[in-house]
Structure formats: structure tokens, C-alpha cells
Amino acid sequence: MKTLVRSFIPHPLNTRPAEWCRAALGACFGIFLTGLLSRELFGIDVTLHLLGPIGASAVLLFAVSAGPLAQPWSIIGSYLISALVALLCIHLLGNTISAASVAVCSAIVIMCVCRCLHPPGAAVAISIITSQNTISGAGLHVLLPVMLNASALLITALIYNNLTQVRYPKPHARSETGFPSISKPEPGGFQAQDLAKALEDVGTFVDMSHEDLETILHKTEENARHRNRSDIDTTRIIARNMQSLTLEHSVADAMKILARQGGQYLPVLDADHKVIGVISLVD
Length: 283
Description:
60% of the residues lie in helices and 4% in strands. The protein is mainly α. Among the domains are: 15-163, no CATH class; 234-280, CBS-domain (Roll), CATH 3.10.580. Strands 1-2 form a two-stranded antiparallel ribbon.
């Protein structure tokens, strides 16, 4: 029971308040400009019916713009697919709850196939179906306001994110093997193929690009190596009957100690008795 209760406690965000404010301001601009343009071209009724999905898309494009769900093809493809699916469901089932359910179900599958999964796309389908004749009666002409909204919000995100030093869209980095790769793997460390296989084994959707995930894992390995080196202290060295050096020792001192104890390396300690390096006779 405790585990179930703890699962409802949200995890802390890894972003700073300044980034929250930046994203919120961008979403405000994006929704306002998109709504203003839509109102001038298609009227207030159409604009209000389609503004809900725009609000949801704005959260992704401005607050989590590095994720796969927020990339340009995701919003453009999902809006187009969802609108077409909604029109087909209206033709077959009318403006009903059944039509909305089938439309969302179908849109999710097609978006996954087309690699443009974008949750607000499902809201586009529902908005069209529940609009009665305000939008759904326009037939294929409904694509005009839908795609205009998607394009206007996307252009705003492209300009605003890059002006505020957030790179958007997220570039793809491909290695010669065809797998995402952003850095040269350390000897004995994981490679891009290992990451791809792990994601395949897990089998669930991860709202993070392979490049970002690989970067985080490499940083984790680097921090772990640094921590492990720092955790080696004088007590462990003395337990092995090994002498050590400090920054005050010269190279000549090191050679004398190595010759006296018949060893091949000596650890160098800082003032806190942490290992900061090694003097070795072999590479």
C-alpha cells in the first residue's frame, strides 16, 4: 500500500525556475499569436473549438522541446492524421462518443506507424468530432484551420526557443552503424547499439531522444568513475602497505620510494587524503 501511495508523489523536476518561466512565457506568446491569426481568418467559433489542442501542444513545444513528442514532424503529422481520421469517423459514425473513441484509437496507431506521436493530436480529433457542424460540417476544409494552427505554433516555437538559447528542433546525430551516437564510447563502456538493444528489451515508450539518453548515461558513467576515484582514501592505501605521495614530493622522491618498495606505481593524495593521481613506471 505504501508503494502505491508513493507512486502518486511526483518526482522533482530537473529544470530551474528560470526555465519554467521561459517556457511559460513562450507558450503564452504561441497560443496568443496562433489564436489571433486563426480568429482573423476563420472566426472566433472555429478558433475556440481548436484552441484546446494548441494549449496542450504549447506545453510540449516550449517546456519539453527536446523530447521526440515535441519535434516538428510530430505536431504537423499528428494534426494532419488526427483531422483526417476524425472526418472519416464522422462520416461512418456521426458526431458521437463512439466516433471520438474510434478516432483517438486509430490516430494513435497511425501516428506511431508514421513516427509522429503527439498527444494533443488526439485532442484535435475529439475537438473536430464534438464541434457538431461548426467545424465537422466543413469537410476537408477543416484541414485549413487545423494545419494553420499547427504551423503557426511551430513557427513561434522555432523562433522563440532559439532566441532564448534553447536549440529547437533537436538535431539527429547518427553514427556509421546507423544508431544514434554523440560521443566516442569509453573502453569497456556501453555503445549506441547497447542502448538501442536495451530500449528494445524494455519495450515501453521513452519520451527522450536516443542522443539525450546516451548523453545522460555517459555523464553518469563519468561521474561514477570520478566518485570511485575520490572514494579511495589513505586508510585503504595503508591497509595495502603502500606508500603515497603528496603534491610537495618531487619526481626524484617518487623514484626513490618506488625503488625502495619495489613497486611500479604510487598514488598521489591531496590535502583531504583523496587520490588525485598516480605516478607509474608503466603506462
